[in-house]
Design a protein that fits this description.
alpha+beta; two-stranded antiparallel sheet; 24% strand; four-stranded mixed β-sheet
Length: 131
């Protein structure tokens, strides 16, 4: 067994299926079943040798049917940002920036998302529902 095969098995055993529930496809007739994709990376040590293999499963969200409410990502307009910065400078106020790095990882899904088992790990007549 090569390194990638063993790390895939370890990844599946560790935590990826903890976010999923196996169900029969007949229970999700109106929903799209998305495929999963393996993404492989590796870490190298200071001498340039591979020290660690990493694998993760990603849902192919690019194949998901888009809805109108899914196509909006509200951001701060440049004009508004410049106005806020001018007010902060005029009144000699302190400013702080925050970044929500893993905000989407822990958020709840509004609608159920169904995915097929990874290639080579499928179970007959079952798909996974992401929690």
């Amino acid at each position: 067994m090569n390194a990638w095969t063993s790390i895939k098995r370890k990844t599946l055993e560790d935590d990826h299926y903890a976010y999923c529930k196996a169900i029969k496809p007949q229970r999700c007739p109106k929903h799209q079943i998305l495929p999963l994709k393996w993404v492989f990376t590796y870490k190298v040590d200071e001498k340039g040798y591979v020290s660690r293999y990493k694998a993760r499963l990603c849902v192919r969200g690019d194949l998901q049917i888009q809805r109108e409410e899914d196509t909006r990502a509200t951001t701060l307009a440049a004009r508004t940002l410049r106005t806020l910065l001018a007010i902060i400078a005029a009144f000699d106020l302190e400013m702080m920036q925050l970044d929500a790095v893993n905000a989407f990882l822990n958020s709840k899904l509004e609608d159920p998302v169904y995915v097929a088992y990874p290639q080579g790990y499928s179970r007959k007549n079952q798909v996974l529902r992401l929690n």
